[in-house]
Structures are given as structure tokens and as C-alpha cells.
Design brief:
Two copies of one chain form a homodimer. Chain A is an alpha/beta fold. Chain A has 13 helices and twelve strands. In chain A, strand 6, helix 9 and strand 7 form a beta-alpha-beta unit. Chain A binds a DNA duplex (30 and 30 nucleotides) through helix 2 and helix 4.
DNA sequence: AGGAATAATACAAACGTTTGTACAAAGTTC
DNA sequence: GAACTTTGTACAAACGTTTGTATTATTCCT
């Protein structure tokens, strides 16, 4: 491996001059800089990033911690973040938590020990506060949270307008003429789900419906729990559900069908996340779309700019067959 | 930050002893090791990985280069690899190429400059040979290729049994009574697609059909190109297609429907990759399933073991509605 | 031209770890 | 008990870069 010392020796200057020349310091003469650059190219020099990082105390790596990389939402966030960070000269280190608190702690430690320049994080369901995050990162490593955020942590946050989105989805179900609308609410230690639940409640109130907590089903996130909760909802007289996730909605649809109900005539549902299968299944599933790619981009930009605010990325209600009782044709 | 020197000072030993104690060298007394470990814990010491990497000349980072992280196949490979590597104490640096040669070169350089311990790679469509890979990695950084491999490069390779899989898929279409079976063959600079095409051809021959190259459509990989190619295939009298990708198959189904054909009665299709939407759409799409998670695991294991062979991960034909003309009920 | 101000470079110390070699103390052998 | 091995530590250099300070060369002014 050729080092700056090799270049320095070849040119009869010192390594420090070479270093400054290569990093464009104004303290080296234009002429010298050109000579250094030419020699570097000739010798095939490439900066040893590890040594550079050691000296500078930080790296050009940005860590991203997500529950599961193969979830469509998260892989798109990562894709969006990467597109910005890569252009800014950073690279991306991915860690998965599999929704487990311990894995999140370990990932944070790994990133800190690698002296990452920053961390983009969507916390595990298993974490119910951000103390471990604050402790692991200290105040030297900037943090940007996205989607699932702890609002008491410092740093930028990128979220969807969950309240407004769930509000719109619920109102849509009301407008479609469904009588009794329950919700599959997800995990209550995530503020995103809490906000969606609030949006659901507010929409019902604003439409003159009463909010019946007996048809609010929490901890529903996978098809199995969605299925189970839907059966209870049907028993409680529901003819529609707003689901805070698409996978639980999938389970709910199965459940409704197992009772012989027609969708959307007898039973309506709107999911959340706009997973790609929602548009392709039959009946196609209405879903409250997140914008993961844009969230990733915003998170990366927030890291780069160092600004601390909360960025809201709007959601969009995709009305499809599963909730279109009134022959609306605004299918997406 | 507390360093080994701090520990050494606190204990009245030297940093070298602390270093050896912490890495479990037999050259330090059990007693000393315990004292060091206790003091390290007390002071909250954590090894500076960057410094360690610099000294050792390599890091505990494994780079993974994929065309697109948000493609289900690749994100699952990454998930599989990560599950093995994480347990072995490595972490994972992800780079995307977006199918572009230049981006692949840049990613390789980034990884090399970060002194990664190894690289797992599925090359971009835009790369038609592996010279840049060999050059970038030299013989110091081990390479494991998966899915899309250049067979002339050294190092382990993890592939699907593309030939046998495509053979089975094509034979299945024959057995379902389709008369004229074309193929959407994908990109011919990827050996995986070449092998699938060969499997398709061999199956037809073995079934006593003649291979008609005019219904072999290459460079079909997205819905749009699949759609277009399918129209041509229909014009050429095809009543079935084996598609080397699911997305092109999706476009093909649209195309067949646009001609008023019923699926699978008038037109049959089998895709490849078993993307999650294939099972959920209507009619559900038969697909030749890859096993990306397992491929990722195998690639990671190959890196860890350092063995050089080719590992074949079997594909599985998922027969669903889009090719089930004969009332077979082996739906998955 | 002599001195001050400025520009360009050299020097040297870090960053925190690992590891080859040297060294001292303890244990073994005859 | 002297010579020799074994065991445990200390010493010091190295990994390649960055950066504060010192030094030399150049320019500018009166």
C-alpha cells in the first residue's frame, strides 16, 4: 500500500505537506498541490480511511439501525438515506434489532465503537424508552430518529403525519357508510401507533360516533394477531376496521372471509404502510401510504445539516377495493 | 474515552499487558487477566475499534454490495448474511450499485479503503465482467459472490440451481398442456439468467418440443419490458411463458389480460423469485422460488470458513393459479 | 537594504491499539 | 547451586494520518 510518506519521499517534501495538499488546505502552494496530486495518481495512492478516522476521531460511516432490513418500509428508508449520504461521501452501516431491546443496545455499541459520524434510528418495539440510546451515543454522535421516535431524545426526528393520516382513513370508512368501526392499533410503546390511534378516535368523535374502547385492539401487528383481533371485532358487531399496519389487515381480511363476509360490501378495511402487496391482492387493499424513501432522504438531510427539528412527511390515503363500498373510482 | 493505558495506569501494568489480557492471550497470568477485566468494566472501557483496525490492517466489517437494497430478494440475502455475521462478531456495510458499473467500482473502492474483512457481492447488470472486482480487492480481501456470479473470479460462489429450476418450471407448463411456450429471459450478461434460459431450452427439447428462438425475449426484467415482450409472444402464437423474473411476469399478465385472455385457461405463466406479491395477487402467480435468506447465510458462512467452492441453494417451484390449468391443487 | 509581515513547508506529537523482542523472576534439571 | 527452560511483563515500534507549532523562504514596506 502506498502512503502519503511515499509520495512525500518521491517529491522531497514532508508527509504533512502531502496531507494538507490532498485535503486542499490553503497552506500549501498551488504548484506543490498539483505536483502532489500528480504523484498520488501516478503511484496509485488511496487514503487509508481507517488511519484517517483514528486521527480525526470519527469516521465517514453513518449507522442505520432498523428493526428488520427486509421489511419493505425500512429497506426503502435505507435506500432513501443511502442515496443522499452516498452523494455526500458517507457510507452506510446497517444494523438490525429484530425488535429486541438487547440487539438495539448492542447495535448502538457497535456503531459507537466504530466511531460513526452519526446514527439514524427507528427503535425496536422492545425498547420502551430512549435512555439506552442517549447513554450509548452521548452528545458527540448526532442522532436522527425516524418513524418510531422517542420525543424526549435530542436530535432531529422524521415522522409521518400519523394522526392526520389515521384521521383521514377513519373518516373515509365513515363516509363509506360503515356503522361500527374498530381498529387494530399496533404497539402502544411506539408514538407512531399512539398517534394513529388518536387520529382514529378523533375522526370518530368528529363524525359524531362514540369511541368504543372495546373494539380497539392493541399489540396487533402480524397477520396472526390481526386475524384473531378481527374475529373479536366481528363478534363485537364491527363492520369495518382501520388497521395501523398492512400485515395485521391481511390477517383481518382472512378472518372476515372465514366468516363468509364479502369485502367491501359486508366488511371494510383500510391498512397502513401501502406495502406493495396491497395493490396487487384481490380485493386490493386500501392503505394509508407512508413515504419511506422520502423519510430516508429527510433523515439523511437532517443528519447532514445538523438541524434539530421534527420533519413531518405526509401520508397519503390510497383508496382501493377493500373499503370502496360507495362505488368510488378513485383507485390508485 | 477510557483507553487501555488508563487501565494499565490504574493497575500499575503496561498497556501491552492490558491489551493481551483483554484479547485472551495465554501470555498473561490468569490473575492479571481477571484484574484487568474487572478494572476495564469498572472504568467502562470499550475497545477503540478504529485504532484496533488500523494496527491490525483490517476491520470487523464485511461489505455487501447489491444492486438495490429494497429489492426483496437482496434485502433477504442481506438479512440472512447479517444473521450469521453478526453472531460471528462482524458488522455489515451495505453498498448499492443501482445496476451501474461505475457505482460498483466506487463501492468496491470504498470497501477496500475501509479495510473490510471481506466482500459479499452480487454484481450489477451494468458489469459484464469481473476485472474491476479482482483489481479492487486484490488477493488480500476475500470475495464471496452470490446469485449473479462471474465464474472466472476466485473465491466462493453461492448460486441457485437455475438450470434445474427453469427446467422444472418449463416442464410444468408443458405438463399443463400449454402448446407454445416462450420465455422472458432477462439479461444475458448474468450467468443466472443464462442458466435459466438453458434450463428452459433443455426442458422443451426433453419434452419433444422444438426451441424457437423467436419467442425468447431477452432484456426483459421490469413490468414494462415484460408487457411489451408478452404482446410479441402472443402475436407469435404463444399460450404460455416462463419468465426469469416476477416483475416481467407481472407485466406479461397485464398484457395477456389486455388481449382478453383468461389466466390460466388461455394463457399460463410462471415467474421467478417468488416475490411476496405473487402469492397475494389474483390470480396468484406461479413462481420459481429462490431462497435468498439461505443464500445470504451460505455466503456469510463461506466467508467465515474461507472455503472456495460453489454452493448451490435449491430453488422450489411454487405452483399457483397462473399456471394451473389442469386443476392441480398443489398450491402453496 | 533592513526589518516586518506573510507564505510555505518542516517537525513532531498525537490518535489507541497490537505485537515482536527484551527482560526479569520463577521453576526445573543434573 | 549453576545452567537452563518456562512464565509473565515491560519496552518500544509500528499502523497512516492529521494538525499545532516551529522554522525557513519569500514578499512587501519605508
Amino acid at each position: 500500500m502506498v502512503t502519503i510518506s511515499d509520495i512525500a519521499a518521491a517529491l522531497g517534501v514532508t508527509p504533512s505537506t502531502v496531507s494538507r495538499a490532498l485535503s486542499g488546505s490553503p497552506r500549501v502552494k498551488e504548484e506543490t498541490r498539483i505536483a502532489v496530486e500528480r504523484m498520488a495518481a501516478e503511484l496509485g495512492y488511496e487514503r487509508n480511511i481507517v488511519a484517517s478516522n483514528l486521527r480525526k476521531g470519527r469516521s465517514d460511516i453513518v449507522g442505520i439501525i432498523v428493526p428488520r432490513i427486509h421489511r419493505e418500509f425500512f429497506s426503502n428508508v435505507i435506500g432513501g438515506a443511502e442515496s443522499i449520504l452516498e452523494a455526500a461521501g458517507y457510507c452506510v452501516l446497517i444494523c438490525q434489532t429484530h425488535e429486541r431491546f438487547e440487539a438495539e443496545v448492542k447495535a448502538l455499541r457497535t456503531l459507537r465503537n466504530n466511531q460513526v459520524a452519526g446514527v439514524l434510528l427507528s427503535h425496536a418495539i422492545g425498547s420502551d424508552n430512549g435512555d439506552h440510546i442517549r447513554e450509548a451515543l452521548g452528545d458527540r454522535i448526532p442522532l436522527v430518529q425516524f418513524d418510531r421516535v422517542f420525543s424526549d431524545l435530542p436530535g432531529a426526528k422524521v415522522v409521518s403525519n400519523n394522526f392526520e393520516g389515521a384521521y383521514a382513513a377513519t373518516k373515509h370508512l365513515v363516509e363509506q357508510g360503515y356503522r361500527r368501526i374498530g381498529t387494530l392499533a399496533g404497539y402502544m410503546n411506539s408514538e407512531a401507533y399512539v398517534a394513529r390511534l388518536e387520529g382514529y378516535r378523533q375522526a370518530l368523535r368528529d363524525c359524531g360516533r362514540e369511541v368504543d374502547e372495546s373494539v380497539v385492539f392493541i399489540d396487533t401487528i402480524v397477520p396472526e394477531t390481526g386475524h384473531e383481533a378481527c374475529l373479536k371485532a366481528l363478534d363485537a358487531g364491527c363492520d369495518a376496521l382501520y388497521s395501523a399496519g398492512d400485515f395485521s389487515a391481511l390477517g383481518a381480511i382472512e378472518a372476515a372471509r372465514s366468516r363468509g363476509l364479502r369485502i367491501p360490501a359486508d366488511f371494510g378495511i383500510v391498512g397502513t404502510a401501502n406495502e406493495s402487496f396491497t395493490a396487487l391482492m384481490t380485493p386490493s387493499m386500501s392503505s394509508l401510504a407512508l413515504n419511506p424513501f422520502e423519510m430516508g432522504r429527510q433523515a439523511a438531510r437532517a443528519f447532514l445539516s445538523g438541524e434539530e427539528g421534527t420533519i413531518v412527511v405526509p401520508m397519503e390515503l390510497k383508496v382501493r377495493e377493500s373499503s370502496s363500498r360507495m362505488h368510488q373510482q378513485n383507485q390508485t
